[in-house]
Specification:
Layout (H helix, E strand, L loop, with lengths): L1 H19 L4 E7 L1 H4 L7 E8 L5 H13 L11 E8 H5 L9 E6 L2 E5 L9 H12 L1 E4 L3 H4 L5 H18 L2 H17 L5 H11 L4 H11 L10 H18 L1
Parallel strand pairs: 2-3
Antiparallel strand pairs: 1-2, 1-6, 3-4, 4-5
Helix pairs in contact: 1-3, 7-8, 7-11, 8-9, 8-10, 8-11, 9-10
């Protein structure tokens, strides 16, 4: 039922963006945990909007107002907040560094922030958003994602995952670091993109890491116990995963 609410919300937001864009919206996709099987009430709603390259500035401003108004629970978001990017059709069709975007909106407890414009240097997280959309994204407007979004090379994804894991050790709680390491290992071995919880369960089933640590991380992710900072065992597991990812990327 919760995922149905996310899909209904994403569909409604895409309809509003369609109007605000003045017909420039090319496609809209729901991605992230809602489509990967790891949705939790505290999850973000992840979306990607693709617009025509010739979308005028006033249409972008109207889209930004819609997304800002809809970005948190007050705007009807069923999760922690809406996190989404607006990109051009050409940028989506041939993803490339520095991963340019037109708008990025992220819901936060204090409101939302809108980043980027036509001159934005880019957002490296977009490469993973493209990859997730191609793997499992749900089209709430427009063509299927593989018809709109080009592939991201595997080596680039591996390097990104390694960097993200190290960032998670410094800035995230233990379940973020550990379960992202599990899902990165699933991608490394199976070339599959999964949610954090599905990655953790796969790691347990296949012996990819310390069972006690991964079980603890899953419990924290599900809210069964309070999340903690990464312990020494978590740090060691994540660093080993980073080394494996970098070796494969090289």
């Amino acid at each position: 039922m919760a995922v149905d609410a996310v899909l209904a919300y994403a569909t409604a937001v895409s309809q509003e963006v369609t109007v605000a864009s003045g017909g420039s919206l090319h496609a809209a996709y729901l991605h992230g945990s809602a489509v990967l099987g790891g949705w939790q009430p505290a999850s973000d709603v992840d979306m990607l909007f693709v617009v025509d390259d010739s979308t005028p500035a006033d249409a972008l401003a109207s889209i930004a107002r819609v997304l800002a108004a809809r970005s948190d629970r007050a705007g009807g978001c069923p999760g922690r907040g809406l996190e989404c990017s607006v990109v051009t059709a050409s940028a989506a069709a041939a993803p490339y560094a520095p991963w340019p975007y037109l708008l990025h909106v992220a819901g936060e407890p204090a409101g939302c922030r809108i980043q980027g414009d036509a001159d934005s240097p880019g957002d490296a997280d977009l490469l993973m958003h493209y990859a997730v959309c191609r793997a499992a994204g749900r089209a709430v407007y427009g063509l299927p994602p593989r018809d709109v979004i080009g592939p991201v090379p595997r080596q680039i994804i591996l390097s990104y995952l390694a960097h993200e894991l190290l960032w998670g050790l410094e800035h995230g709680p233990e379940p973020y670091a550990v379960l992202n390491a599990c899902r990165a290992t699933v991608f490394l071995t199976d070339n599959a993109i999964v949610s954090k919880i599905v990655g953790g369960e796969a790691a347990l089933d296949r012996g990819f890491g310390p069972a006690e640590l991964i079980t603890r991380a899953i419990s924290q992710q599900r809210g069964q116990v309070a999340a903690q900072q990464p312990g020494d065992d978590a740090v060691e597991f994540v660093r080993q995963t980073v080394a494996a990812l970098r070796q494969a990327a090289d």
